[in-house]
Design goal:
Layout: E1 11-18, E2 24-34, E3 40-47, H1 58-83, H2 89-94, H3 99-110, H4 116-132, H5 144-156, H6 167-186, H7 213-220, H8 227-239, H9 243-248, E4 254-256, E5 262-267, E6 274-278, H10 281-284, H11 306-316, H12 327-340, H13 348-355, H14 360-366, H15 368-371, E7 374-377
Parallel strand pairs: 6-7
Antiparallel strand pairs: 1-2, 2-3, 4-5, 5-6
Helix pairs in contact: 3-4, 5-6, 8-12, 12-13
Length: 384
């Protein structure tokens, strides 16, 4: 916002206009003077009242008369509040915004690349709706008590028979919520964040699960109900390409260099940066022969079945681990680390790029069980 929330109106004028179904709509224009750019600084307050342009019976006439009197009284009260220092522009402005609607628009604008962070905001919307018991709530009602109670809700929430959120998840969603409110304060949509001062605590990440090379070999030799799913998952294990990116890959993304090696040239969804990654021979087994340049590499992967199918396939292979699609990247990270850890720290940059991480500290989280602009990665990922 480009004007102060502390300004008070110079006038408050009542207007009416034709509405739908023969009704009249009353509204009051709060006029604060001119902005620094010489444009009028106003706020329009719409009054939700029953009034008719041509009342058809006594009831409609009475309601129209009462509505007009109320509207006139409301316009007069505004200036009385100004004179008695009771006028609060902040509350008026916040009444224009809905919390979840504003958050959705903000996230869509900030995270133009629809990756994991954007998806976390969608999940946060669901938790907020469960908390408020409605589709949305006015931003003016988001107070410090609202934020404290929402954090408590996250820590105690149970969704049907699926259990409650982990301590890490509840803290993570609250941290995202706090960040969003701070951004609204920075953009001067709200004067300050109502969640400021609420201590979330350290988000502790569990060690990431991964598959040993011997277990990957077992999966290779185990039949999967959907061969296309098996092809995607094994390619991900040997390339660190995430599920969301595998769905978008086309054959034209793969190029064979003069040295005979294959490279993946694409824009990573999570970082929105161009990447040139050397592909392992094993990864290319699941890509070759190439199809048409514009054809999807994995056209039949469905989002809503991937967890169920991988659990069934892993169980059939006799592997007693909780494996999710993301574990393919974890498996790549562990195998790559084990192959190159003895050569010094030079391998870290390549591994970060395969994993789409900005810093090594994030990559280390994926190695927890082992350890206790243009990007290019050239170390061979042939570890199988």
């Amino acid at each position: 916002m480009d004007v102060s929330l502390n300004r008070v109106p110079k006038s408050a004028n009542l207007y009416e206009r034709k509405g739908a179904n023969g009704k009249i709509r009353f509204y009051i224009v709060h006029y604060y003077g001119l902005k620094p750019d010489k444009k009028r600084d106003t706020y329009t307050e719409y009054l939700e009242l029953d009034a008719w342009e041509n009342p058809k019976n006594d009831e409609q006439r009475q309601k129209t008369k009462s509505a007009r009197k109320f509207a006139e009284r409301r316009a007069a009260e505004i200036m009385t509040d100004v004179e008695n220092f009771r006028y609060n522009r902040k509350n008026l402005m916040l009444d224009k915004y809905w919390l979840i609607e504003t958050m959705q628009k903000w996230a869509d604008k900030k995270y133009t690349i629809k990756g994991s962070t954007h998806n976390k905001y969608k999940t946060l919307h669901r938790h907020l709706r469960a908390f408020i018991g409605a589709d949305d709530v006015k931003l003016s009602l988001v107070t410090k008590r609202f934020c404290i109670d929402f954090f408590h809700h996250l820590k105690t929430y149970k969704a049907n028979n699926k259990g409650s959120l982990t301590d890490s998840a509840s803290k993570q969603y609250m941290a995202i919520f706090k960040y969003f409110l701070e951004q609204l304060a920075f953009e001067e949509i709200i004067p300050s964040s109502p969640a400021r001062g609420i201590v979330v605590g350290i988000v502790k990440s569990k060690p990431k699960e991964f598959l040993e090379l011997s277990e990957i070999e077992t999966l290779i030799n185990t039949e999967c109900r959907f061969p296309e799913f098996k092809r995607y998952f094994l390619f991900s294990c040997f390339s660190a390409t995430a599920f969301a990116e595998c769905r978008e890959l086309i054959y034209d993304d793969f190029r064979k260099a003069d040295d005979g090696n294959w490279y993946l040239n694409t824009e990573r969804i999570k970082t929105a940066r161009h990447t040139r990654l050397l592909m392992s021979k094993k990864a290319m087994e699941y890509i070759l022969p190439l199809g048409k340049p514009s054809e999807k590499v994995f056209p039949f992967i469905k989002t809503n079945t991937r967890y169920e199918e991988i659990r069934r396939w892993v169980k059939d292979a006799g592997i007693q681990k909780h494996i999710t699609p993301h574990c393919a990247k974890n498996s790549f990270a562990v195998a790559f680390y084990r192959k190159y850890r003895d050569i010094g720290d030079g391998f870290k940059n390549d591994l970060k790029r395969y994993m789409q991480h900005e810093d090594w500290a994030t990559t280390e989280k994926y190695l927890g069980k082992v350890l206790g602009s243009e990007y290019s990665a050239n170390l061979s990922p042939d570890f199988f």
